[in-house]
Amino acid sequence: MNAIKFIHCADLHIDTPFKGIGSIDQELKDILYNSTFKSFQNIVQIAIDNEVHAVIIAGDIYDGADKSLKAQLKFRDELLRLSDAGIQSFIVAGNHDPLDGWAASIEWPDLVHLFSGKKVEKIPLVIDGETIADIYGISFPTRDVTENLALQFKRENKDIPSIAILHTNIGENTGHKSYAPATIADLKSRGFDYWALGHVHTRKVLSKRDPTILYPGNTQARSAREPGSKGCSLVTLEKDGACEITHFPTDVVRYHKNVIDLSGIETLDDVIDKMKTECEDEAKTLEGRHLIIRLQLMGRCAVNQELRKGNSITDILESIREHFFGREQIIFLEKIQLATAGNYDLESLTGGNDFIADIISLYGEMDIKDASSLEEIKEM
Prior knowledge:
The chain has helices spanning 26-49, 69-84, 184-188, 268-284, 304-307, 312-324, 346-350, 355-365, 371-379; strands spanning 3-9, 54-58, 88-92, 112-114, 121-127, 130-137, 162-167, 194-198, 204-208, 212-215, 231-238, 243-249, 253-261, 290-300, 331-341. The protein contains 9 helices and 15 strands.
């Protein structure tokens, strides 16, 4: 067989509670709660439709060690769909779902392998009686794994492709806690063709070849801190190590952060209309997915003082939410961040006989050479 085709996904976080929004919109809370289940269903369907050889899940299947039985049964049922289609599943546990938290005594389908947390295991990927690849992996036995697990991996057979699965933090600036920390150099030193990573929720290709190293990102965003498309990667790995990767969106609800420039805006009605249009235009790009959006208002505008007065922003937020209420495709304005400024005629202000005129005049006379000088003036 010349190429191996598999799905690489990670950080499903099934059973995420999505706290906060339920007190505002119960319908959206229900959709969010089911979104992590639905995103994995989408992955399974993508795997079946593309007739892959395997599905690799690189940790954090569940959101917490104390996962519900409902979550475990739903996950098992989707693995059964893969097994019935002849597709093998290879799974490692991560810091959110370590092996010491997998409590339910349910049976897994025949073609599912959950890697041990004691040592790195090698499992052959067998298709029609032929071993077409070796799959290596190790699970988190407990949550707080701080040792470099990558150094435990060692390729045994160079005649067939070898894939390593690891839940890990590569580098220092990932925005995630440093569980099982390692470096790209560590991974490259182990001799594998492909590293299927999990833990970092942003899709990142750390190395395109020799070996290919990939974080696919999480499959469903869980907050406004995770904007943009979320999904899985369809990987075609050639015998010579060449790798083709295609991102498939699987998210049900998508988060976005957009900036609106209010420069030149004259009325609050214009502000509201512009925000509604921004929400609608963003929703049109999502192929029916629900939208949770956060808007930041920028620029110098005539309505700055009105926007900052009393409960204006809260009232605008509620008005826009009401405008979109009841739609089949939910559009939910999660938050408005105000970063506008007013329009001022400095020349006319300087010509006055008041405190403002004095301040502007003094500022104009000061010798500001660097940022530290400006900070001293502000403090004074």
